[in-house]
Design a protein that fits this description.
Layout (H helix, E strand, L loop, with lengths): L1 E6 L7 H15 L3 E6 L13 H5 L11 H10 L2 E7 L7 H16 L8 E8 L4 H14 L12 E3 L10 H23 L1
Parallel strand pairs: 1-2, 1-3, 3-4, 4-5
Helix pairs in contact: 1-6, 3-4
Bound molecules: flavin mononucleotide (FMN).
Flavin mononucleotide binds next to helix 1 and strand 4.
Length: 192
């Protein structure tokens, strides 16, 4: 079993990365392989609406000049997908939006590549708009027939400067609880 997490923040070692690692800690402790893929700050472009993915049915996006096809391969191979984003004007960062649109559309036009995988959203926020970011990410999971576990609060951590979320104790505990639930759920699904 394996979990792949995507960091949509251009700050590679910022708050989103910190939170993703907190979620992954109990997953690793449960013996499940994990990986974090850096998407934020890369030169990723949006969907062209060319529908070539629908025509070719090859589980790929026709745009092959950025990281999205690599992300797609990792998503298809994973048992659980975690999408992490900072809050930018109360929504996901642009790079995460491009990944959602293109990977989500390839999945959709190729028969549902993410069906029954576990999906979790993780959000860094300074003050407001985080629940909308969660909603944007969860919409991809829910339209993809994925299974979305909850935690003890909504999955965001609060902070402005890099690693400021390390002071948000409740946020960090929520991430740890989320990680434990993801690991538990993955094992139950495997047994089913
Ligand atoms: C372009 C931009 C827009 C932002 N918009 C918001 C916002 O709408 N609400 C908010 O609370 N914080 C906002 N922030 C602050 C970030 O969400 C916050 O600093 C977050 O912790 C950054 O995560 P990171 O370190 O992973 O990049 C914004 C930051 C930037 C650079």
């Amino acid at each position: 079993m394996n979990v792949v997490a995507f960091n949509g923040s251009p700050r590679k070692d910022g708050n989103t990365a910190y939170l993703l690692n907190k979620v992954l800690e109990p997953i690793r402790a449960a013996g499940i392989a994990t990986e974090i893929v850096q998407v934020g700050g890369t030169n990723v472009r949006g969907c062209r609406a060319c529908y070539t993915c629908k025509e070719l049915q090859n589980k790929r996006c026709i745009i092959d000049t950025d990281i999205v096809n690599t992300c797609l391969e990792k998503m298809i191979a994973a048992d659980a997908i975690i999408l992490g984003s900072p809050t930018y004007f109360a929504d996901v960062a642009s790079e995460m939006k491009a990944l959602i649109d293109r990977a989500g559309f390839v999945s959709h036009t190729n028969g549902g590549l993410f069906k029954r995988k576990v999906g979790a959203a993780v959000v860094a926020v300074r003050r407001g708009g985080a629940t909308n970011v969660l909603d944007s990410i969860n919409k991809l999971f829910l339209i993809s027939e994925m299974i979305v576990p909850g935690s003890t609060y909504w999955n965001f951590g609060i902070g402005l400067e890099k690693e400021a979320v390390s002071k948000d104790e409740e946020g960090l505990q929520n991430m740890a609880n989320l990680g434990e639930t993801i690991a538990w759920l993955m094992k139950k699904i495997k047994e089913a």
